[in-house]
Amino acid sequence: MNPLAGSGIGAAQIGSSYLNYEQDQHAWGFRAYARFNASLSAETRSRLALKEQHAEPYVVIFGKTQVGKTTLLLDLMGVHAQHAQRVAGVLRGGQARGRSATATTMEYQQSPDQRWGLRRSQADTVWFELDLDMEYALRALRQDMEKGGLSATAPCVVFLPAEFFANSDRSPVRILDLPGDKPSNAKEQDHVTAMAAQYVPLANLILLVGRGDDLSFLKKGALTLPIIEDWQSAPRRFKIITTYSFTPQSIRELVRNSPTPPTLDFFRGHLIAEITRSIPLNAFASNAEIFFPLEFGQSWIDAENQDLALFERVNPMIAALKQQLLVEIYASTSKLSRLRAAIDAHIVVTNLRATRLDDMAEAAAALKLERDAVLAQRDLACAALRQTERRCAQGEAQMQQVTFKTIDAEVERIRIPTFVRLDVPPERVPDFTRAVELEKTVLRRHVTEARPTGNGSVLASFWSGVRAAVDERHMNAVVDDAFRDFFVHLGSYWTDWYGRTDAGSNYCRDLAAFDACASSARYVATELLQRWWRVAALEKSKADSKIVEALRVTRSMWQHVVDEQERSLAALNAQLAQHETRYTELVARMDGELDASKRFVELLDSEYLLELQSRRSVICSEPSPTRALLGLFAAVDLQQVRQQILLQVD
């Protein structure tokens, strides 16, 4: 007897009704998600989404070194196999095999042309024509990381030349390549941990890569990064990819000895069996859809040449698995992935809180450093202003006292002392010649030593800086000219002895002539000396006036600098005060969001109960027993849906 007889419902209607129920199985979860989302700030909501609503997925790939991680990444991007070794060599950045080649979180994209490109953090992209130049750039990137000078706030973007891609029409896959497990030094470990905390909790999908002949990477604690090391706690966020899955001899024999061509389920089941020999898997982690045994790269090219029969039997399955993996990657952008992100929100908010607070602390430190620098510059400017004001005041005081009148008065006081006559009167004509030379010597010494001194400290300071341009040759010529006639007269004597020295004698007349010549020489020398000092003083007075004018300009400049720095200090102090207020507000807001993120399970339970009550009401009011029964089955299935969602919660 047909159980649906008399129900008035056909098979197609039954299928349609049940499909409607099934399509609504997650609706209650998304209502909880909407309520949860509304309780968070816009910043946190954007961090939870993190481009998950956009076309290209956000994937994290992680694994030990030398497991084919980079080769897999290139393959997923559509890089042709013949270029894989070349590209992988460049991306190693000069690192030897056996060591982690990825220095920091990398994002790989197809270049718009045939050049390599590297964009570090938020800086502009640098383009390279040669492989070697790109390799050097990646090597420098690693060196910066090892010195602690690499920021962990954003991934570095690497652009691969377009010629390497087998299919330029393939949709771009956004992949973040984390540094390899077990880094070589503590500083690198700190950087890797920061990167994992930054990106792993928010990833749409995590590709965990290891060798098929070494499954120890799946053991709890085998990996040192947070979140990834306990992959079974959220297996739906992971795809386990094994490389070198078909090249081991045991697998080859398994394929050859199989009476029928092995299927994907067969190989996945075999891989799960190998894992469970040493690693217990929970029910959800045992899902075959999580595992992707693959083979690619040079090892698989060699297998084609060495064992064509094996290659032809296995390669279609590998191609199908790769295609399925790409489908899974794009599927990770679905609404369910956003729901899983909300489930992990407490991790996101915790990391966001630490990041934002660290950023604010860093910004505050930068503001304080800037303020201290401005304060130091202000102090230097104030010191320079005070010194300039002091010099300007001195110069202005000097300008008031140093006038033509005061200069002339000081110059007029310059006198050459009266000649002191010889103690022993000369009795010989040549004695007068020696007396003349002595007078010239005395004159030259006084010309050199005589100078104005100034009356008072200001004038004394002025005259101490005056330097007269004494023309010694001119002075000597003037003195010689004063004694020229006297020398001619002395030359007219036919004997060197005077004989008589009494009044009226030649000696007395010559002595009087000598005194007259000496007086004339001193007078002329004094006039010359006064003229030279007057010219020098006037020139210095003009130069000092220009200096004072320059000092006034400099004084105005330093005053402007001080005023500007005072305004800068006031602005920086205001910014610091505002920063401290925002910091306090941020701590309160983020703590509130952290509490809210932990309430998502409560929201799920609330919406789940409301959904059950709604279903019960619909079932009770449903006139068709068949539809009521289908609704009851769907309501029972909600428990399984709820368990699957809650499994993601720590």
What does this structure look like?
Strands 4-3-5-2-6-1-7-8-9 form a nine-stranded mixed beta sheet. Helices cover 61% and strands 7% of the residues. By secondary structure, the chain is α/β, with parallel strands linked by helices. α4 (69-77) packs across α5, α10 (298-306) packs antiparallel against α11 (308-331) and α15 (429-449) runs parallel beside α18. It starts with 10 loop residues before the first helix and ends with a helix. A hairpin with a 6-residue loop joins β3 and β4.
Annotation keywords:
650 residues, alpha/beta, disordered N terminus, 20 helices
Order of helices and strands: HHHEHHEEEHEEHEEHHEHHHHHHHHHHH
**Oligomeric state of the chains?**
single chain
Give the strand tally: 9
Unreliable stretches: 1-15, 49-56
Spatial order of strands in the largest sheet: 4-3-5-2-6-1-7-8-9
Average pLDDT level: 78
Beta-strand level of the residues, as a percent range? 5-15%
Helix content: 55-70%
What would you call the structural class? Answer: alpha/beta
Tally of separate helices:
20
Sheet with most strands: 9 strands, mixed
Query: Quick one: overall form?
Result: elongated
Distance between the first and last residues' Cα: 50 Å
